[in-house]
Amino acid sequence: MSTAITLQESQAHAGAHAAHAHHHEPFITKYIFSQDHKMISKQFVITGIIWAIIGGFFSVVFRLQLGFPESTFPWLEDIFGHWAAGGKLHPEFYYALVTMHGTVLVFFVLTAGLSGTFANFLIPLQIGARDMASPMLNMLSYWFFFLASVIMLSSLFVQTGPASGGWTVYPPLSALGEASEGSKTGMDLWLISMATFIISSLLGGLNYITTILNMRTKGMSMTRMPLTIWGLFFTAVLGVLAFPVLFSGVILLIFDRNLGTSFFLSDIVVAGKILPNEGGSAILFQHLFWFLGHPEVYIILLPAMGIASEIISVNSRKPIFGYMAMVGSLFAICILAFLVWAHHMFVTGMNPFAGAVFVLLTLLIAVPSSIKVFNWLTTLWRGNIRFTPAMLFAIGFVSLFISGGLTGIYLGNSSLDIHLHDTYFNIAHFHLVMGVASFFGMFAGLYHWFPKMFGRYMNNTLAYVHFWITLVGAYLIFWPMHYEGLAGMPRRYYDFANWESFKMFGGLNEFISVVAIIVFITQLLFVVNFFYSMFKGRKVTSTNPWGATTLEWTTPINPGHGNWEGEIPEVHRWPYDYSKDGRDYIPQTEAVGENESVH
Amino acid sequence: MSTTTVQGTKWWAGGKSPFNATYGKVMMWYFLMSDAFTFGAFLISYGTIRFSVNFWPDPNQVFNAFPGFGHQDLPLSFVSLMTFILIFSSVTMVLAVHQGRHMNRKGVEKYMILTILGGIAFLSCQAWEWTHLITGEHKVLVNGALETWGTTVSKNPWGPAVPHEQLSALGLAASEHVTTPGPVAFGGYFFGITGFHGFHVFTGVLVNTIMLIKTRLGHFDQRGHYEMIEKAGLYWHFVDLVWVFVFLCFYLI
């Protein structure tokens, strides 16, 4: 607020130093405490990649346990020490790994990594702004995220291990230190990290919203914004309004753990000892958690939707089908996101009438979702499709969104959900629809905007290998889980060998684990490609390699802080004038011709 | 990756569409919405718990003290004074914003000082009220034994009174006021929510102090407008508005 360096001040600053044309910034303000939105975006993406490797590796380790419950892996002991004594994962640590896999990928990769990267990078570039509304808060947003990351990472190294109550941290398991090893220091660090993360998300979100609303260049009316910006806008609104509710829950949980309050605890006996707590409600925490938790799904998904819309249109050389319907459906999803949280709690116990209301509202989400899917498909229809890696990932996103979305209709019905809740059916559903799908959106965006970020191309061959193995692998991992879940196989179990009814899935589990390992290794291919291409990739020679209409391609190949040399371009048309009046594409900056047809 | 700063070009400071407000004000409004959700979650949680238990302490009994009046029964009088102070500080904030619009530096300074004093006075009152509750001594019958409790996050002495017959059976004078433990949630929510609100007031006082210093140094005169005062004002009014709800939820119903 008071200390924020506003653009007006930056302007005065730039004016004062205008004489020094080749003024070079010192390393620390250019790469570390940078206020340039492009550098902050790169900081987010690299932190996100590191987290994704950690979170992905955790899933490989617990998949080893699920796929090969009888085997031992001595190298695990080298990494995890007494948590994997004799090469066999300790059950407590299995739960810690599952918890950290969820936490890391949902919050640190697909929330901060995805929104942080693309909102920072694309918003100023695509709406025609020199930088974010407040570059200072933007920088703080990254550093709060970094702090949250450090705290979460350090929880992996405390003696009692990281939090292990699941990424939803339901009390009483999370509220009582004596409940399990993972409920001790690891849980405190989890809560502190999450509170810090929410501050980061708030600072970032406020900036994204105000930048989109107020910093648009001349002519860039709201209805001329690319769909990426609309996606990121609604994501930011969701984040700003949903995260504070989790913040309240986290604060109350910290009080319960450390100050002896009873917000979420009531009449509990642990190890034969009656606790003094009374009158609290564990279900209350579930409400607070899922009031964030459900919008969180869309916080993860909407940026990917925006990215996919943009990339599909550019690479089909066709205008996006139903621009206003796309914006409207994003808005509808944004509203519905706040009204469906209790569908995660059908088996927790609620008034059947409330359950019926939540079923209805949940199923309503199918309407805007279908609108989006059909619009993507009709955009592709008879398009002049270029199968760039980004385009493949965008199409893969649509595929996974359909496959995962259809099972959402099953799970949204409270009567069916009683059977399917907390089974592998649920795991398959949300991994396809929000996990892998959003990853595909992220990959699509990175392959597409990599030339703009680093002035070089990524290697296409590696990218194609990456795409096909990941797409086929994702289906091979999650498709069989639907059958396991329908048969009632519950999630979060350490070992299924003792259940006669699940013995038949032993082979299938082994298969899933093998594919998961292959897919994880394939992602390392992407990481290698990313960092290699950053320094050694083929150089970009034209400012607009994809023949796109949007503003980011009107900047120099390596834009400096301020993005445009000279004046900011003026916008005269919407961003989807592809294959119009016999021309391949017409940039947004071009004035509307006298004889031009109206879209 | 050569990222030199673009020099000598015009930086776009943003428009006012679509809300006819500068980005700073839009940002403040969205922040307040976000904060409203935090407080909303706290207050709704409090409501859920409060209406799920059979007994809740009567605020007229809990909040009946006034500094300097000893044990006199003055229900809600002190909190009324606190509320009056806070609302009054909102009035002085409005006047500060008004003086800012007229570029009157002396006027802004005067009313900012009054607003800050109002905030500090409120916080002092809250400190006294908390101390009074925590250090209060109430006789509570716990599992057949008599204990002396203050009101804390884990202890609530404001349960139903022990009937006179039972008192004499315990060998106590019938005039003695002895209670049973009340719902634990009372202290947790009271201290949690008023504490979180108090933290907001404290932050507001800090922000207002920075604004006062910046006004003194003539920063806003150089800038040509006092919009920062307006933004600080938005925050201050929000904190007051939240207090109205806290006051309603804890003291009136």
Strand order of the largest sheet of chain A: 1-2
CATH fold group of chain B: Four Helix Bundle (Hemerythrin (Met), subunit A)
Report the major sheet of chain B: 2 strands, antiparallel
CATH architecture name of chain A: Up-down Bundle
Q: What characterizes the major β-sheet of chain A?
A: 2 strands, antiparallel
Quote the distance from N terminus to C terminus of chain B: 62 Å
What's the CATH class label of chain B?
Mainly Alpha
Number of strands of chain B: 2
Q: Can you list the strand order of the major beta sheet of chain B?
A: 1-2
For this structure, the quaternary state is heterodimer
* Average pLDDT number of chain A: 92
Tally of helical segments of chain B = 8
Overall outline of chain B: elongated
Proportion of beta-strand residues of chain A? under 5%
User: Architecture of chain B, according to CATH?
Assistant: Up-down Bundle
> How many domains of chain A?
1
Q: Would you count the extended β strands of chain A for me?
A: 4
Tell me which protein chains meet in the greatest interface and how many residues each side has.
A-B, 79 and 58 residues
Write a structural description.
The complex is a heterodimer of chains A (599) and B (253). Chain A is built from 17 helices and 4 strands. Chain A is mainly α. Chain A has one domain: Cytochrome c oxidase-like, subunit I domain (Cytochrome C Oxidase, Chain A). Chain A has a two-stranded antiparallel ribbon. A two-stranded antiparallel ribbon of chain A has the order 3-4. The longest helix of chain A has 37 residues. Chain B is mainly α and 253 residues long. Chain B has a single domain, classed as Cytochrome c oxidase, subunit III, four-helix bundle (Four Helix Bundle (Hemerythrin (Met), subunit A), Up-down Bundle), CATH 1.20.120.80. Chain B is 62% helix and 4% strand. A two-stranded antiparallel sheet of chain B has the order 1-2. The longest helix of chain B is centred in the last third of the chain and has 32 residues. At the A-B interface, helix 1, helix 7, helix 8 and helix 9 of A face helix 1, helix 6 and helix 8 of B.
